[in-house]
Amino acid sequence: MSNALLDDRVPEAIPEQDPCSVYPQVPGIDCQSFQLPPEGLAPEGLQRALRQLRAYQAEKKASFLGFQANQKLDLQELAEYLDYHVNNIGDPFQQGSFGTNSKWMERAVLDYYARLWNAPWPHNPKNPNSYWGYVLAMGSTEGNLYGLWNARDYLSGKFLLYDPRELARLFAASQANESFELPSELLYVQAPLPAGEPEEYFVPVAFYSDSTHYSIVKILRVLGIQAVKVKSTGGPFGPGTIDVKDLVEKVKAYAARKHPILLCFNYGTTFKGAYDDVKAAGEALMPIFKKYGQDSRIIKNPGYKPVERTGYWSHVDGALGAAYMPFLERARVPIPQFDFRLPFVHSISMSGHKWIGAPWPCGIYMTRTKYQLSPTSDPAYIGSRDSTFAGSRNGFSAMILWYYLARNSYGAQTEKAVGLLKLAEQTEKDLWKLQKENWPNLDLQISRSPLSLTILFRQANPRIVAKYSLSNDEIGEGAGKRYYSHIYMMDHARDGRVQRLIEDLKARDAFDVPRDTSRLAAVAEQVLAPELLASDASFAAASGLEPLAVVPLSGRGFQ
Ligand SMILES: *Cc1c(COP(=O)(O)O)cnc(C)c1O
After folding, report:
1. Rounded to the nearest whole angstrom, what is the distance from the C-alpha of residue 270 to the centroid of ligand 1?
2. Ligand 1 centre from 71 Cα, in Å?
3. Which residue, 12, 233, 319, 408, shows the most beta carbons closer than 10 Å to its own?
4. CA angle 330–335–336, rounded 5-degree value
5. Integer-rounded Cα radius of gyration of the chain
6. For the chain, what is the mean pLDDT?
7. Does 379 have pLDDT greater than 80?
């Protein structure tokens, strides 16, 4: 396009400050080289920026240890598809008309995990027990969102139905051999309360532990679901698994009032890598559900046959663990069960960029066909069903997952899982050795949950945190608060980088962490009413504020 085409009278915003003076500095990156002027970058400028980009990413990748994201990628064979727009828009089991899709590969990936997670496969709309699922456009956050959304609607008596009068007309027409139009819309309806049931009957309450990923709290806000927080075993410094006794106590109170129960289990918590014993929890809860009728509910929409639904839903957030624990089980490591073998599990989510190592967030959501809201048993379903959360879905992600599974047999994945579990055990020992030999007078706070691939230790200084992309978090409250870093034993960690980190942790300033509390003090002065600033009563007591939800700022590992 020639510049003569540009009308320079069209207004545009000019910067009020140099962006490079306001944004965070990135070591190794010259912010100015990456600014995007309207004329774009000249070839030399573009190459300079790309050189910096490459050097930066290569350096970060070489020492990456903090997050459960495999950096050992080997995808060049698929590189050419960066020049294709592969989009799996719509339901994976309907081909649709967006030609450049990879849905047949997506279906193969889903079948693979259905097999691994013990769900009847292939997906078949006529088999209500068979799985249904899709490859996520986001990571497990979307899988959690979809699972809890489905759960909320399922438990609160929502249905997606064809207009019954239209269906009846259609039936009559077909009986009379007359031509008819298929319905083009679905009705989203609320079933009436069954006679004699209290309003609570259709008001689900979610239960999650204080080790649950922050995405769940966010999603509960998005969906407007009431929630109850359950303790983790052993308190804040325990292993991070859900306290089944506390769960049972809390569920009992709500189940007795007829509330449907939404259970959010963790299979590999983000910070401690802990595994909820989904089987033990489900088995402890079933008698309660039986007692109060949540085990089976008959719900009737006017004009329709009654349907049976459970009055509870178990969602398993298996972002990390669902991908590799089945392989540890194959190596005869006793693992807590979590999959569709358990009749009380409704949905599972898993991230594709964690264990597997996709170059961008993606993942898998899986449930059973019978738990979907839409009338899936209808083989004459017309058009491409809008059954997924995102419309457009990254078809490249499905190709990457497929390619990984094609090249990593059960045997190879089992070997990898066992190797990384051993590496985690060894690293824990090495850190204890470091504690004993190098830091006899400083508590390094070393800890590791059973079967976990992550090891926690005292928060390292910012230089080490940046070098190894360590994930930091704080645990506990008030004076008892402890600051941690953690490292995750993923495939890339088998190249000796853990030893390099341990060497760096011998430096005299390795655990010197500056703490700046002045910033928050300034915030307090800016936003609080003067009378509250003066008071030393607790905030809630002094202000009378009743939070609708408590949004965690810690426990996210990326601050
Ligand atoms: C990472 C993670 C998530 C969120 O997954 P994304 O892929 O980042 O969206 C959810 N739950 C747990 C336990 C996680 O570790």
Report:
1. 7
2. 16
3. 319
4. 135
5. 27
6. 93
7. no
CB atoms within 10 A of CB 344: 18
CATH code linked to domain 103-160+186-407:
3.40.640.10
In DSSP terms, which residues pair with 207 in a beta bridge?
228, 263
| Eight-state DSSP code of residue 194 | P
Quote the ligand 1 centre to 141 CA distance (angstroms): 6
Distance from C-alpha of 323 to C-alpha of 139, rounded to nearest angstrom: 13
Strand partners, 471: 486
- Write down the domain spans for the chain: 3-63, 103-160+186-407, 416-542+554-559
Instruction: Find the Cα–Cα–Cα–Cα dihedral 38, 43, 48, 53, rounded to 10°.
Output: 70
Q: How far is CA 521 from CA 36, 51, 238, 269, 481, in A?
A: 37, 42, 31, 32, 18
- Look at residue 138 and give its three-state secondary structure: coil
Q: Count Cβ neighbours within 10 Å for each residue of 136-160 and write b for 16 or more, e otherwise.
A: bbbbbbbbbbbbbbbbbbbbbbebe
Q: Look up residue 56 and give its two tokens.
A: 């930066």
Which alpha helices (H) appear in 176-268, and where do they start and end? 214-223, 244-256
**Can you tell me which residue has the tokens 């738990």?**
371
Q: What is the pLDDT of residue 520?
A: 72
pTM for the model: 0.94
**Is the pLDDT score of 556 beyond 80?**
no
State in Å: Cα 103 to ligand 1 middle.
24
Pocket probe for ligand 1: among 68, 70, 140, 317, the residue whose CB has the most ligand atoms within 8 Å is: 140
Instruction: Kindly list the protein residues whose Cβ atom lies closer than 6 A to any atom of ligand 1.
Output: 138-141, 213, 215, 266, 268-270, 317, 319-320, 351, 361, 363
121-127 contact pairs (CB < 8 A, 24+)? 123/93, 123/369, 124/369, 125/93, 125/369, 125/376, 125/377, 125/378, 125/379, 125/381, 126/377, 126/379, 127/369
Token duo for residue 279: 């089987």
Query: Which of 241, 270, 452 maximizes ligand 1 atoms within 8 Å of its Cβ, making it the mutation to test the pocket?
Result: 270
Model confidence over 380-400: pLDDT tens digits?
A: 444 457 889 998 999 999 999
* Rounded Cα distance, 358 and 328, in Å: 21
- Residue 369 near residue 127 (C-beta atoms within 8 A): yes
DSSP string, 160-180: EE--HHHHHHHHHHHHTT---
| Residue bearing the CA closest to ligand 1, atom 7 | 139
Q: 505: which DSSP letter?
A: T
Give tens-digit pLDDT for 289-331: 999 999 999 999 999 999 999 999 999 999 999 999 999 999 9
- What is the distance in A from the centroid of ligand 1 to the CA of 81? 27
- Which two structure tokens, joined as six digits, stand for 272? 């401690």
